[in-house]
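User: Okay, second chain of the day. Same drill as before: sequence in, structure tokens out.
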Amino acid sequence: MKIFVLLSRFPYPLEKGDKLRAFHQIKELSKNHEIILCTVSDEKVEKESIEILSSYCSAIEVVRLPKWKIYWNLLIQLLFTNKSLQVAYFYNSSAQKKINKYILKYQPDHIYCQLIRVTEYVRNSKINKTLDYMDALARGMERRVEDAPFYMKWFLKTETTRLKRYEHFIFKDFDKHVIISEQDRKLIVNVNNDDVVVVPNGVDYDTYKHAEKDKEYDLIFTGNMAYPPNVDSVVYLVNNIMPLVWKERPNIKLVIVGAQPSSKVLKLKSDKVIVTGWVEDISEYYSRSKIFIAPMQIGTGLQNKLLEAMAMKLPCITSELANNALGAIHNENILIGNSDNEYTQHIIRLMEDDSLQSEIAQKGYQFVKENYTWEGSTSILEKLITSTQ
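Assistant: Same drill. Structure tokens below.
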């Protein structure tokens, strides 16, 4: 089958969750199908990135979105329409003409869209198509409202309403629908959301492979550090949890690893808190850390960071919100915190008990190995796509 994959970002390098998901799905689907990759992009795509994807795609088309057009379009949509700005950011009429031309040129059997950001381009196409909501974008936006600065609250509330409306109405324009977790499926505002198929993420077990190395850091948090839920999480960790930990274990060090650290994250730096920014090989930092912690307070979707850490046999501590999508078992293959004190107790317990560290780590590894592989998850997607013919 010839599959036209339409994305809102080029899926390499793998510093963001949507890129990671798209890259591995393309890699797996290419084993049995011809992949035509089309991405809209607001930045230059490096030649090396295109070459890497060329191994899995018969054709690659990148449609550039000039920044001035993006901002002009956002202003018009905000002031004079009720369209989602997430969608408006990635849409313009020039790009529409190019994508129409590519679909006509390649004559695909199926169109696969990742995220509602790009659905405007193909919603009226008569070709069979699948939408990957990925996560409940509107609900994620809504969770950011409460803790947002006062000058952002109106914008976030407005965009939440627009996103909910769009998530609902775009549903009917696609033949099949997928999402990353059961939790997120329930948050899609549509009477037929039970028809959305859960396609979880997997782990690249060749990259995230346990290795015995000297431990340089006690705690580690990873992720794109410009992403608001990650920023919120590490600010909460450093300001609320770590002072309680340091009262009992003053020498504990935390490393925050991930691209594009925001000013809020950079301000957390100290002799006990290391902020790395982008690193070439994040697995090295997992290997040199004792405990993974992700006290996620907002956001949606499945946390890739948890899958990676568990695959590398790190004992993990997270929130109930994050674990709802993951489905691990508290006190067996993960530890779940619901308050500053609970997180603190979990950290201290693991730091003082090597056997508990080892037990949680090993059972966490077994859990992800049994439930989260790219081969297994993409096979669900493949069966769905091929069943539309």
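The chain has 16 helices and 13 strands.

User: Thanks, on to the next one.
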